[in-house]
Amino acid sequence: MKQIFSFVAIVLFSGFFITQSLIGQEKITVRAKGSFISRDLTPEQTKARAIEEAKREALLKAGISETIAFTDFSYQFEDNEKFQEIFQVISSIETGGEIIVDTILHEDRRFNEFGNMEVEVEIEATVYKHVAKADPGFRFKIKGVDEVYKNNDYLLFNFTPAKEGYLKIFNITDEETSLLYPFSHPTETYLNEDPEYRFKKRKEVQFPMHPAFDHGYALEIIKPDKEQEFNILLFVYTKDYIPFLDEVSFKNIMKWIYSIPPDQRVTEQVGFIIKKKL
Questions:
Q1: pLDDT tens-place string over residues 7-44
Q2: Least CB-packed of 85, 124, 152, 265 within 10 Å?
Q3: Under CATH, which architecture does the 25-130 domain have?
Q4: What is the CATH architecture assignment of 140-275?
């Protein structure tokens, strides 16, 4: 979907990890290995499973011993493995901390004596170890997003928070990532929205909020040769105003989210597909 208009650090032995104090949590860099054996998965799917095992090992090294549960995909993205991986990262539920893979340091692929593929990886990852727990009363509701749209349709939806707070909405596709709300344009500044707008408790708001876009967000497949485009709207709602200052990329978004203690934010993702009109 196009935008509107078509450290204080303590270094421990052997580079094992670096710890930085954050509000309500600890930030740790860890190296870990993981492997996975597969009979019928593709090489990339097998590698993804090995990375998940390495992530679990990294969490254990960081001192997070709780059970880590990774959700299944709620949407069927067919053969788009890259987008499946993105959705899995966003959908993962971690009870004691969150993790971002910074680098895959080493990857080894081989077949064992039974003809099964085995992939082993070594990763360097950043673990955000939480002290605070999520606030169960800090929630919001989204309604009005359909599962499928036609190219050049308009997107309208409603947002209702349980408590006052600040919102950012990111749009993630298999081609690009953008900040949908608050909208900002370098030259058409009259379209810019207030990044510090505070949403009211239990007051329903319709998006887009700007009166110039009363028809909705224009949906358009980015590459004209594609038959469909996968999209995820990632909603991030925080108790305090926390600016997002980095370049908009999936990795930077997740780093920004994980740097916020879980009792200060809540996230939700909604997926949809844009299809070409017949």
A1: 222 222 233 444 444 455 678 899 999 999 988 888 88
A2: 152
A3: 2-Layer Sandwich (3.30)
A4: Sandwich (2.60)
